[in-house]
Write a structure and sequence with these properties.
By secondary structure, the chain is mainly α. It has a domain at 61-103: Methanol Dehydrogenase, Chain B, CATH 4.10.160. It is 50% helix and 0% strand. It contains two helices and no strands. It has helices at 3-26, 63-90. The protein is flat, with a radius of gyration of 31 Å.
């Protein structure tokens, strides 16, 4: 390998190392952090965190809509328990819960 090629590779490696070290210092995430990990700030025109409740930005979740997921999870657990019980009794796995009592 010639001295010029070796010098070129060395210079390229040094430039790459310089960019790799300087890149995190140049990064900007768009927030002003009060301390590390506390970087929440409202967008312009959006109320502060403690002023959201009761404003037009308050999501006002309907309790019936929120309960739908827990209801579907309970139904899924009941179906899985019925499948497991049937498998323990018969040794056959039946996916369709309606067919478990039919046989």
């Amino acid at each position: 390998m010639s001295k010029i090629a070796a010098f070129g590779r060395l210079a390229a490696a040094a430039a790459l190392a310089t960019v790799a070290v300087a890149a995190p210092a140049l990064a900007y995430d768009g927030t002003n952090c009060k301390e590390p990990g506390v970087c929440w700030e409202p967008k312009p025109g959006y109320p502060a965190k403690n002023e959201i409740k009761g404003s037009k930005y308050d999501p006002k979740h309907d309790p019936k809509e929120v309960a739908k997921q827990s209801d579907s999870i309970k139904a899924m657990e009941e179906r899985n328990a019925a499948r497991a019980d049937n498998f323990a009794k018969t040794g056959k796995f039946v996916y369709d819960v309606k067919k478990i009592g039919a046989n």
